[in-house]
Amino acid sequence: MNAPVPDSLMLQVIKNRLNKMDCTTRGWVLRGFPKTREQAEMLENAQYPPNRIIFLDITVDSILERVCLRRVDPVSGDSFHLQYNPPIREEVRDRLQQHPSNTPGQVQQKVEEHYAYVDSLMKYYEGRSKRVNADQDQHTVFEEAESFVVNPLPQKVE
Q: Is the pLDDT of residue 156 over 90?
């Protein structure tokens, strides 16, 4: 069983990466970190506060459908989705493999872990975050997220 990476080590790896020239000049995106309010506070205290945070809202059923039906061809490395992008050739279909973490039980556990912390993260990042309905087509989701990233944040009036 995989042990979780300690937060202090994770933060050090992230800091090392965010100090690279491309991140300091072009910006950066973190996916899946921070997961908890404590991690968010660590990131902030390390002087790496994200200026935009996007929370993707999607039903558990849609998550399970999207993740659990993903497959990879071990020969070509190509990715497939059994419902939305199945392989055309039966020979490819027969050799497809599912990543062990994409089983319903594993995905359900990750979803439950996410929901245990997401409310406190949303509250922590209030004013610089946006909830995006991810239970729609990928182009609409992208456009909504992109508009939040490229447009200036509203200024607080005091």
A: no
